Structure formats: C-alpha cells, structure tokens
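Blinded run. Sample ID left blank on purpose so nobody reads anything into the name before looking at the predicted structure. Input follows.
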Amino acid sequence: MEKLSFYEQVGIVTPGAVFLFGLLFYNPDMKALFAKDAISVGGLGVFIIISYAIGHLLAAIGNFIEKLYWHLNHGMPSNWIIGSTPKLLSLSQIAKVEALTATRLGLIVNPFSGLTAEEWFPIFRQIYSDVEKNGKSSRADIFNGNYGLNRGLCSATLTLAITIFIQSPIVGLILIVASSIYLYRMHRFGVHYAREVYNQFLLLPSIP
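Blinded prediction complete.
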C-alpha cells in the first residue's frame, strides 16, 4: 500500500479503526482474525487494511450526515457570505472578497446577495486554489483535516451505537452523546476552515 495522505489517515483510517476496535471489544471472537492473544505485526497490517476499507464506508455515511446537517444550518460555512443574510465575515470584508474575485480571479459574478450555493461553490474552490497557490493554505488545511476527522468519528460512533445498542443500551447512548460532540466539533472546524480561507484570500494583493 502506498503512503497514506494526511486526510486518509485522519478522515478514513482513524474512524475505521475506532469502529473496528469497538466491534472487537463487543465481539471477542473477531480477535481471531488478527491474532489469538494480541494483535501481531501481520495482524496489525490486516487491521489497518480493514480499517481503511471500513473507513470509506463510514465516509459515505459521514457524507450523508454532513449534507443533512448543513442543509439544516443554512448551508456550508463557505456559503455564509452570499445570500440576503450573510455572516461569517463583516460586510466590509465581504465587499473586499467580492472585489478580489473580480481583480484577482478575473471573474465577473452577480452581486453576492443574489448568488446561490450552486453558483458559489466553483468560485469558492477557485478562491481556495488561489490561496493554496500562494502558499497560504496550511492553516486552512489543518482545519479541513480535523473537520474530516470529526465527521468520520461522528459517523463511526453513531454507526457503532446502532450496531451494539441492543447488546448494551447504556453504552449505545454514551456513543450517541459522543457522536453529537463530534458533530459539534465538525461544525466548529468547518467554520474555522471557511473563515481561514477567506482571511488568507483577503491578505492577497488586488492584482495577482
């Protein structure tokens, strides 16, 4: 297996490992898949591979949770500067982002107050690409990695809670609470990520 990226490690493998460890704890017979008494070196490799595979399944569940959650919270934070009731940035900052979109990216767009999320998404991606090209995206990337991690852990703990709820209702409820905390953390890092991308974009010169 090639070296895993930072996102794959924190957003895919870690949630998969958490879910798999939970299954092993409540289903001791599964430990025979790795080793009789403890996880061996070879068993660790199998554990990581299975965690990676499970992590992708959990990511699909996480994508559904993410879509539903942000739909109920006025869209992704990156969209919070458009529409009739913008937030995330001050009005003066939003006006500057609008100006930089024209001068730096060469894009002529409708006033932000009239844009939809579908119209804004490719423009935001171009803003991020501009920030990344200028070497200013490292802090935003850390926020994004932690966003993916908490989304994955939210998905893992919720799925594990559903899986073991009949066997252990109390633990299932504790996992649901943990899932809610991870969802809150996902929200926080999502907001931090969007704000950081915009803040770095605002620091770039008007003309590239």
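Unblinding after everyone has recorded impressions. The mean pLDDT is 89.
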